[in-house]
Amino acid sequence: MTLFVFLAVLSAAAMHAIWNALVKVHLDRFLSITLMTLGMGFAAMFALPFVEFPRAEIWPYIIASVVFHIGYRSFLVGAYKAGDFAQTYPLARGTAPLLSALGAIVVVGEVPAPFAIVGIVLLSVGTLVMSFRGGAHLEKLNLRAVGFALGTSIFIASYTLSDGSGARLAATAQSYAAWLFVCDAAGALVLCLIFRGPKAVPVLARDWKAGLFTGVLSGAAYWIVMWAMTKAPIASVASLRETSILFAMLISVLALGEKMTAWRVAAALGIVAGVAALRMG
């Protein structure tokens, strides 16, 4: 991974943390994520006239990614119902890079370098520690919640591999990203109508400005990630993306006045060590 790609993915991770902080409108998390996805798709529509229409061999990757994103959101809904999302979702984010690394070996034939493997593990562990606040609440997770969390991580790894492979085959990462975002928005709207019904549409419409802003930020961040996966190993990029949780911690401490506790310092050091190992790899 070159220094430019490395810094680009770090910037995408920072943007990912920022839009996650901004997406907290007065809607529930499912509607907030749906609104952001619709905003991302709406913004991407303006890019369609300027990018190449995907060739026939690209569409299976786009369709697969949309299906994986639908599965991802469906499992999020299950996570909301099964247990504390603040605990189950971090489990998904922490295990997804490991699954992406395994998937890259099997599906893409990319075997990470030794230092990269160390970095992936350190980043995953640091992410879990950061999210679970030292692991104090792990014992409260029930099997149903764990199942939804691990299912979510499988879908995250799946769309990561699909998008990394599709972006590499496409004419440009921009072309792949633009068409994916538009199709994904359509899938998100269908899923929202299934789970919440037509009454959700006016609720979403009231916060369209927040959805458009966070959608543009999220789309830019993920486009950088997809572009980076055309320049560097998928597993390394996917893992480096999870440094977003480190940026989220900085936002919470510096902007929201939360405390910098010992577990946060330990987790941050683990994530930083993982980043260093990935750079050396």
Can you give a write-up of this model?
- It contains twelve helices and no strands.
- 47% of the residues are buried.
- The protein has helices at residues 3-22, 29-45, 59-82, 85-108, 114-132, 143-169, 173-196, 200-205, 208-229, 234-241, 244-254, 262-280.
- Helix 2 (29-45) packs across helix 9, helix 3 (59-82) runs antiparallel to helix 6 and helix 4 (85-108) runs antiparallel to helix 10.
- The termini are close together.
- With 281 residues, the chain is an all-alpha fold.
Features:
281 residues; mainly alpha; 12 helices; globular
The helix-and-strand class reads mainly alpha
Query: How many DSSP-defined strands?
Result: 0
Gyration radius over CA: 18 Å
Largest sheet, described in full? none
Share in β-strands = under 5%
Uncertain parts: none
How much is the average pLDDT?
A: 86
Q: How do the SSEs run, as a string of H and E?
A: HHHHHHHHHHHH
> Which of globular, elongated, flat, extended, rod-shaped describes the shape?
globular
Distance between the termini: 8 Å
H/I helix tally: 12
Helical percent range?
over 70%
Q: How would you briefly describe this protein structure?
A:
The chain is mainly α and 281 residues long. Helices cover 79% and strands 0% of the residues.
Q: What is the strand and helix layout of this fold?
A:
Elements: H1 3-22, H2 29-45, H3 59-82, H4 85-108, H5 114-132, H6 143-169, H7 173-196, H8 200-205, H9 208-229, H10 234-241, H11 244-254, H12 262-280
Helix pairs in contact: 1-9, 1-11, 2-7, 2-9, 3-6, 3-7, 4-5, 4-6, 4-10, 5-10, 5-12, 6-7, 7-9
